[in-house]
Amino acid sequence: MKKAVGRGRPFVRAGVLLLAAGALSAAAPQADLAIRQARVWTGDTKKPWAQAVAVAGGRIAAVGTDGEIAAWVGPSTRVIDGRGAAVIPGLIDAHFHLLDLSTTGGDVPLNLRFILGPKELGDLLKAHARTVPEGAWIFGEGWDERKWGGEPPSKAWIDGATPRHPVWLLSARGDSGLANSAALREAGIGPETAEQPASGIVRDRGGEPTGLIRGGPMWLMDRVFADKAFGAAGREAEETMGRLAALGVTSVQHTGNWQELLVFQRLRRMGRLKTRIYAGVPLPAWVRLRDYVASYGRGDDWLHWGALKLFKMTWTPHPAIDRAGRLDRWAVQPSADEVYGWFAGAARANLQTMVHAGGLEILRIYERVRKELEPKDPRFRIEHAHDVPPDWIALYASAGVIASVQPPLLAHIDDRTGAGAAPPRHLFPCRELLDAGVRIVLGTDAVTASPLTTPFEVLAEAVERPGPDGRRMTLEQALAAYTRDAAYAEFSEGVKGTLEAGKLADLVLLEEDIFAAPAAELRRARVRLTIIDGRIAYGTVSPDQGPPPASKAAIEPRRSPPASTSGKCG
Predict the structure, then answer these.
(1) pLDDT tens for residues 256-314?
(2) Residue 517 belongs to domain spanning
């Protein structure tokens, strides 16, 4: 029998939560904060409703009746009157773009897909260097050493053409890059650099880096660009996190690039994260994340990583023809076997994969990975899972695929159909998916610079729109998709997504009881308080409702990437 592929998950630890809950109740109970006289929807299927909740040490201490929570109230407890309004778990946006950084600082990279060897590469760089200021970075992407007879590229190929410009050239898959000597100096990469795996920084016989970097150590190059962007990017992320708190969003699932992940890490080290983040990076370069996790782990409860995203693309079993008429199977599209290799490699490395608008071909890949590799808990995802024909639903269920849905985008599909585009085959079959045992998660697909759609608009769209069979999601089902199941989709259901003793104290007090209000009022729901990590992140309470909760030390990650001596992020 084949050995099952497992996944190390530092967050899904029910035993740890039970110990935490026991520790909270073993001593004389005193909460930092308590909300009473509320309608508490816990998201816990075994105990979905309560009147009150107590928070201590950044965790949920207890959930129960007003009388039960009264036992947790002490002289220093801040007691908040819920006034009959709803309390819900902190909302988790399952598809959000907290930053949108260019990997090249806004420059258009040189297209290297049709370069056939070192001379052609050097000539292109030399000509381009004449058009940019001295000292400016030169970026390129798309090279494939298989076109060069398998000879590994080297800085010796490009140093002579670019003596006054740092150069960084990414391969077609993004899992390796070529730097010239100037770029290596800016990144602090030299003979003494000991980043793992040792084979990632290719060296000559004397131990000098050749300029070719593969896999995990590529983050050292991305750190240079993340440092340059950090001032503005950090401020932008903080401003957006403040807006999210005002909307009741306590966590987001972000897929982007490595520079964005490094910016988040620096914010985390500085104690400036106000929203919990699950971060993903591109799938074709899956070896980078595999190596990085091996060296630095997966993060902590504020920031963790482990997802790989494939944007919608095509591939071919046949050779492609480049624009000059040359036969070149790597110029435009990867082969089907190569694409499968990305998913299989990710599964062996216990990394989650998600696909932008994946269809039947992706579902078949997921089925093949599950049957051939038997991954223990892959939690495959398809983003923008809006149009799902009936015969696909069974494939979603059998492969354990999570359907990530962004209800605000459904209106755009309606608009395109109204403008003459082909109509969807089976739009938003929400209840059919749930009946088949498929988990749905909700998000906005918001980009930080744009006006943010409120979670309550998303929830309203989800419960108001009928599926092809005429059935709608209930409010509780939609909330589960924005909390409990969204936490599951990032392997964090053991610490967040529901209001249970021992879990992280991320919760939202609304101004009204959304469960009693007419469905039409859901869009206009307002947040009174957002509590993250046991502390009020948005809203105020009157002075007669007790002192603020005691501050709690930030949770330290298992191992953080090393910061540079100048304090740059890593």
Answers:
(1) 999 999 999 999 999 999 999 999 999 999 999 999 999 999 999 999 999 999 986 65
(2) 14-90+501-545
Amino acid at 197: P
Task: Write out 399-422 in H/E/C secondary structure.
Answer: HCCEEEECCHHHHHHHHHHHCCCC
**DSSP SS3 for 178:** strand
- Which residues lie below 8 Å from residue 198, measured CB to CB, with a gap of 6+? none
Tell whether 65 and 114 lie within a shared domain.
Answer: no
Contact (CB, 8 A) for 207 and 163? no
Cα 453 from Cα 219, distance rounded (Å): 33
- Omega of the bond leading into 408 within 30 degrees of 0 (cis): no
Q: Which two tokens stand for residue 28?
A: 């004389």
* Total number of domains in the chain: 2
51 burial (CB, 10 Å; 0-12 / 13-18 / 19+) is: buried
Q: Is 0.85 surpassed by the pTM of this model?
A: yes
CATH number at residue 38: 2.30.40.10
- Asked whether the CA dihedral 502, 483, 546, 549 is positive or negative, the reply is positive
Strand partners, 96: 254, 446
Structure-block tokens of residue 272: 């400036």
E strands of 222-302, at which residues? 249-255, 276-282
Give a yes or no: residue 128 inside a domain: yes
Query: What Å distances lie between residue 382 and 38, 55, 370, 385, 441, CA to CA?
Result: 36, 35, 15, 6, 10
Give me the amino acid identity at 407: P
As given in the structure block, the two tokens for residue 402 are 């999570």
Under 8 Å CB-to-CB from 396, ≥6 apart: which residues? 363, 382, 385, 388, 403, 433, 436, 438
